[in-house]
Specification:
Layout: E1 7-10, H1 20-35, E2 39-42, H2 56-67, E3 73-74, H3 91-103, E4 107-110, H4 114-126, H5 149-157, E5 163-166, E6 173-178, E7 182-187, E8 195-197, H6 205-215, E9 220-224, H7 231-241, E10 249-253, E11 256-257, H8 267-273, E12 282-283, E13 290-291, H9 294-297, H10 301-309, H11 324-330, E14 341-342, H12 345-358, H13 361-375, H14 387-397, H15 407-410, H16 412-415, H17 423-429, H18 434-447, H19 453-466, H20 471-483, H21 491-515
Parallel strand pairs: 1-2, 2-3, 9-10, 11-14
Antiparallel strand pairs: 4-5, 5-8, 6-7, 12-13
The chain binds one RNA strand through helix 4, strand 7, helix 6, strand 14 and helix 12.
RNA sequence: GGCCCGUUCGUCUAGGGGUUAGGACACCAGAUUUUCAUUCUGGUAACAGGGGUUCGAUUCCCCUACGGGCUACCA
């Protein structure tokens, strides 16, 4: 099996927006394939027509693309040699394998209705036991094991609905090696006779994923831990179909847990604690409910992916900031954690902050230009939108934000003059001589030839000295005049940025206001 | 209930028979900074419990506890 080309897949079902846990599963499958020079494909498992949600498939594809997870084959990407990649379009393929299993005695037809089974379950529950369609109960139920052959044919001919169930052996130990957990074994007695083919002719996940993985030459099936209990049934199906040698290696990923308390991460937690649970915004077409996404929240896809990768995996070194190619290189399935990982929204922000810091100013400037223009009603000829101005503004703002979309709020005063001034600072700091000082400063600034941070600062200090003031006496006031606020970016950096004209104008405006 | 998986600072984790049990987030303190932020330095804080095995267990084994998952003609 080791000579085979590595092929992994992500196989979501389009029943709603893709959860971040799902994205992580896709990411790990992708990284694993790429690490080993293999293929990664996207297969849509839409065998449950009742749970189909319009737009979900597109959402999944768009999410993966936003994250930079590119499938070599699959729905929404390029068709490969195993198309179609949507299970509903492969419906005809599955029945023959189910029938093959019946022929070989490893599966059987069952005619029990959902209502009958439901009643049995309820009954069992009341008796404080559990009903399962399995070795112990199948001989008491309505199926081709208990019915006469004629009866079975008659029922089928009459169009009676039936399912095909796996006939699990009575007393076997089923063992397989999970890539993450090592050897895992189950007693066959506890695995139930899973439905392989449903009454509507669609396969269940159990049959469909195996047939497709086999046909699509998947070598490694990476999926969530919730599948571990049904893995023995899957092993059996491979065995009975005669594909055991081609069976992919399974890896069951630990779950993503809610930040507080216990249990797996759900949409509710995001709403409750105020963080996104989905990669992109999602508007539910039926309920009209809106869910926010990382993309719209302002996360960089690289940061989102980096954060996700570290939820349950780490490279074993102290490096934490990784790009996608670096992740591909470092990824190792053995380094995946066994226990579930609680999601920490604070650390997620930190990842974004780190990626923001490492981005070139000009790149960020280009990203925010349009929204800055809208926010401050600027047009393309305004100096504030120039590369030089914006990049410098970004460099000033960068250490103060975690997201680039915060810049326009945090640094509004770089783009537009303040209209109000922090009264507290003024009343505390304003004293005799200040008026004289700022009047002189305005004059000196208007005469300053080489306008830059250092010269502005030097001039400021010189004027202060000639007025017998310490810089500290008037610095705070100057900041308030420039920004309206007590805090903010580097003062003389801001002065240099907005320029001589704007600086003297702001001094003058502030002076008039204070004088009143 | 049954079956399966899991358990190192509050959180994400490194480590792995002999370590001062390391890092990151968060938090706290100090330094720098005209302010806030940044940055720097330092700090609080963990091997679930009990039995083995061993000269020695956080590390290996067993049990218990706790947590999680599954137990559909859903995936």
């Amino acid at each position: 099996m080791s000579e085979r080309k590595i092929r992994t897949r992500f196989a979501p079902s389009p029943t709603g927006p893709l959860h971040m846990g799902g994205v992580r599963t896709a990411l790990y499958s992708y990284l694993f394939a790429k690490k080993h020079g293999g293929d990664f494909l996207l297969r849509i498992e839409d065998t449950d027509q009742n749970r189909f949600v319009a737009g979900a498939e597109e959402y999944i594809i768009e999410s993966l693309k936003w994250c930079g997870i590119v499938a070599d084959e699959g729905v929404g990407f390029s068709d490969g040699p195993f198309a179609p990649y949507r299970q509903s379009e492969r419906k005809e393929i599955y029945r023959q394998y189910a029938e093959q299993l019946v022929q070989s005695g490893h599966a059987y037809y069952a005619f029990d209705t959902s209502e009958e089974l439901e009643a049995l379950r309820k009954q069992a529950e009341e008796a404080k036991t559990a009903f399962s369609y399995s070795t112990e109960s199948r001989m008491t139920l309505t199926n081709s094991l208990t019915l006469l052959e004629d009866d079975v044919s008659r029922r089928k001919a009459a169009g009676e609905q039936y399912v095909i169930r796996l006939k699990v052996p009575e007393n076997e130990t089923i063992t397989f090696t999970d890539l993450i957990r090592g050897e895992v074994s189950f007693q066959s007695a506890v695995v139930d006779d899973k439905v392989l083919l449903k009454g509507d002719g669609m396969p269940t996940y159990h049959l469909a994923h195996i047939v497709d993985d086999y046909l699509m030459k998947i070598t490694h099936a990476i999926r969530g831990e919730e599948w571990l209990p049904s893995a023995p049934a899957h092993i059996l199906i491979y065995r009975y179909l005669g594909w055991e040698n081609e069976m992919p290696d399974y890896a069951h990923l630990p779950l993503l847990l809610k930040p507080d308390g216990n249990g797996k991460l759900s949409k509710r937690d995001g709403d409750r604690l105020g963080f996104p649970v989905f990669p992109l915004d999602w508007n539910d077409p039926i309920t009209g409910e809106k869910s926010s996404g990382y993309r719209e929240r302002g996360y960089y896809p690289e940061a989102f992916v980096n954060m996700l990768a570290f939820l349950g995996w780490n490279p074993g070194t102290e490096k934490e900031i990784f790009s996608m190619p670096e992740l591909m290189d470092a990824f190792a399935i053995e380094q995946i954690q066994h226990a579930g990982a609680k999601f920490d929204p604070e650390k997620a922000k930190w990842f974004n902050e780190q990626h923001l810091r490492s981005k070139p100013d000009i790149e960020i400037a280009n990203n925010i230009r349009a929204s800055i223009a809208t926010e401050f009603s600027l047009n393309e000829n305004d100096a504030q939108l120039s590369d030089a101005f914006l990049a410098k503004a970004v460099s000033l703002l960068k250490p103060r934000v975690q997201f680039e979309n915060e810049m326009q709020t945090v640094g509004s005063y770089l783009f537009v003059a303040p209209t109000t001034f922090d009264e507290q600072v003024i009343s505390k700091k304003w004293k005799e001589g200040c008026m004289q000082f700022f009047t002189e400063l305005e004059i000196e600034y208007s005469k300053l030839n080489d306008w830059n941070t250092d010269n502005c600062k030097l001039t400021f200090e010189a004027v202060a000295a000639s007025n017998s003031l310490k810089p500290g006496d008037v610095l705070q006031l100057f900041r308030v005049m420039m920004s309206g606020q007590a805090g903010g970016v580097d003062l003389f950096g801001m002065v240099e940025l907005v320029g001589a004209g704007e600086t003297t104008k702001r001094i003058e405006t502030a002076l008039q206001k204070i004088n009143r």
